Amino acid sequence: MHFKKEALLDLLPYGGSFLFLDEVSVDEKVDINGSFAGEGFYKIPNPEESRIMADHFPGCPVFPGHLKMEAVAQLAAVIFIAKQSGDDSVLPVLTQSSFELKTMAIPGDTLLLKATICVKGRAIEVVGEIICGANTSSGMIKGIAMPKGIFGRMAKRKEKKEQLNQTVLNL
Which 8-state DSSP code applies to residue 57? Predict the structure, then answer.
């Protein structure tokens, strides 16, 4: 399966400025351990195209390391959803990461991202790689699979909290 940026925007719950994937390919096969994999690409934008790049070391822009890990997590989410035949009623929530970052990416560089996912019950483990030029960073991301409805309930709670705060401010 192959996804371009427009399809990725439809598939993932992110706006365009927080999507760090331009293209994704998901392997059709599942390995003997039940793991599945894919890879993606992200071209680092120029400061004129991205507020993040404009503000992360003005005059000497560098793509932040934590956003490289986020890109791997987004890749893993695409692979997870694709392997469920596009059923996005359950989404991965990837919360723990441990990466050894050895890559530096500047505007114009293209990151090659690789992820292999193992799902056991609700637990998700992702082994990822970030390749930029001759340098490779690698690590692991862990999380859980959660029903999509929980995100809607969280948004409603946040809205109620904001309404309550506004009411208190108006007193």
Answer: S
Dihedral, 42, 44, 48, 54 alpha carbons, nearest 10: 120
Phi-psi label, residue 22: left if phi above 0, alpha if psi -120 to 50, beta otherwise: alpha
Coil, strand, or helix at residue 91?
strand
pLDDT of residue 146: 85
Tell me the pLDDT of the chain averaged across its residues.
Answer: 88
Rounded distance between C-alpha atoms, residue 150 and residue 74, angstroms: 19
Single out the residue of 80, 86, 100 nearest to residue 27, CA to CA: 80
Q: 121: pLDDT confidence band, cut at 50, 70 and 90?
A: confident
Residues tagged active-site:
56
CB 81 within 8 A of CB 11: yes
14 in Cβ contact with 74 (< 8 Å): yes
What type of residue sits at position 117?
I
Residue 154 to residues 36, 150, 157, 158, 159: CA-CA distances in angstroms?
A: 30, 6, 5, 6, 9
> Who's near 13: CB < 8 A, 6+ residues apart?
91, 151
Distance CA 132, CA 22 (A): 15
Cβ pair 69, 118 in contact under 8 A: no
